[in-house]
């Protein structure tokens, strides 16, 4: 049942190109020119604001999608974790689309948050891996992520499928609102078509990542840095690492480092920098150089051009294929997951069933 893998988690990481292909086929028109949603269709001209709520890894998928919805579709997005949102009595204006993201569709806090917005928001949409779940049933619309059963407690393929569906949704929003021309939507969809192949290339770095991970396993604290849509991924990378390897890890926005966390950096601190060669690259590199100047050991994950420009003096580097900007968070999820996985394997922890954690959190 693990299809030759030692753990469900590694099987599920490896399945990502396949399940993402399925999600792409499901949401793309046959001519590849537009995004098609199952009935009932969502008309994004009806909303002037989106609120996205979830827990844990699903929350980081929402946080990433905020960048896409705002940059691509020009619609303002608020994101929050469900356990805060449900109690903070947020005013919900009537032209709000409320989006809930949940692998299980049964997470107690997310379901309670959904119920809070029922009757207040214009529409409630759930993005889930479980079409029969409570959240799917209580929503106006529900979109499947088509990840297939995820057994490992640490979410991997559900995360990347959530991201894929949310990116397609952002493109649909851009299409409806005229924020992108038909031609530009088509170009973005062509890029998405290349994603499964790029993910396969990223997966080929597994052995190189295992070598670095064997050294990370000796650390007691690890930092993850990213800017733009790579910031939520830094948070996700840190969560994944701590939940299965039990090593303390924190994700920070690169620009926030000098406001406090840099005090943590010494020669024992590995700092994982997630930085494709995009328009924010130089800013991130300057933050990276600040930690190197304080003795920090940097693992730079970037593409060919990024490594050429900035790998001088770094401790380790991992090369990702070059990708269009919008796809980077989905692609870079792979090395983040593999780092957590191989570090946990090196430490000998229970990868698929980490201590104190449950797959579905149906109590508050
Ligand atoms: C982390 C992880 C959790 C879940 C969270 C929400 O790897 O799996 O953080 O993402 O408990 O669960 P769902 O998506 O079922 O609502």
From TrEMBL:
GO terms for biological process: carbohydrate metabolic process; fructose 6-phosphate metabolic process; protein N-linked glycosylation; UDP-N-acetylglucosamine metabolic process. This is Glutamine--fructose-6-phosphate aminotransferase [isomerizing]. Its EC number is 2.6.1.16. Residues 40-179, 212-354 form the SIS domain. Homodimer. The active site is at residue 359. The keyword Transferase applies. The chain holds residues 244 to 607 of 607 of the full protein. Catalyzes the first step in hexosamine metabolism, converting fructose-6P into glucosamine-6P using glutamine as a nitrogen source. One of its GO terms (cellular component) is cytosol. It comes from Pacificibacter maritimus. It is found in: Cytoplasm. Its main location: cytoplasm. It catalyses: D-fructose 6-phosphate + L-glutamine = D-glucosamine 6-phosphate + L-glutamate. GO terms for molecular function: carbohydrate derivative binding; glutamine-fructose-6-phosphate transaminase (isomerizing) activity. Keywords: Aminotransferase, Cytoplasm, Glutamine amidotransferase, Repeat, Transferase.
């Amino acid at each position: 049942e693990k299809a030759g893998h030692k753990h469900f988690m590694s099987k599920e990481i490896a399945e990502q190109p396949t399940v993402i292909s399925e999600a792409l086929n499901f949401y793309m028109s046959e001519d590849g020119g537009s995004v098609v949603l199952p009935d009932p269709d969502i008309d994004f001209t009806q909303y002037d604001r989106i609120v996205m709520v979830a827990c844990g890894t699903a929350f980081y998928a929402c946080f990433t999608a905020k960048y896409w919805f705002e940059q691509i579709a020009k619609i303002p997005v608020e994101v929050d974790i469900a356990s805060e949102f449900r109690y903070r009595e947020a005013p919900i204006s009537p032209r709000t689309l409320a989006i809930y993201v949940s692998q299980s569709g049964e997470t107690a806090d997310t379901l309670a948050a959904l119920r809070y917005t029922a009757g207040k928001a214009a529409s409630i949409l759930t993005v889930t891996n479980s079409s029969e779940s409570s959240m799917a049933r209580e929503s106006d619309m529900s979109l499947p992520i088509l990840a297939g059963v995820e057994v490992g407690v640490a979410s991997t393929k559900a995360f990347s499928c959530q991201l894929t569906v949310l990116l397609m949704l952002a493109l649909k929003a851009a299409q409806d609102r005229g924020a992108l021309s038909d031609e530009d939507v088509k170009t973005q969809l062509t890029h998405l078509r290349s994603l499964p192949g790029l993910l396969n290339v990223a997966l080929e770095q597994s052995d190189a990542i295992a070598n670095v991970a064997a050294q990370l396993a000796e650390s007691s604290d690890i930092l993850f840095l990213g800017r733009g849509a790579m910031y939520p991924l830094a948070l996700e990378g840190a969560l994944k690492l701590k939940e299965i390897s039990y090593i303390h890890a924190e994700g920070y926005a690169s620009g926030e480092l000098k406001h406090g966390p840099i005090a943590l950096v010494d020669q024992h601190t590995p700092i994982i920098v997630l930085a494709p060669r995009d328009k924010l690259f130089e800013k991130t590199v300057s933050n990276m150089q600040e930690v190197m100047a304080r003795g920090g050991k940097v693992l730079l994950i970037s593409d060919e051009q990024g490594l050429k420009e900035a790998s001088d003096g770094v401790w380790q580097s991992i090369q990702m294929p070059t990708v269009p900007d919008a796809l980077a968070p989905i692609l870079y999820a792979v090395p983040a997951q593999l780092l957590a996985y191989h570090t946990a394997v090196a430490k000998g922890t229970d990868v698929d069933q980490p201590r104190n954690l449950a797959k579905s959190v149906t109590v508050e």
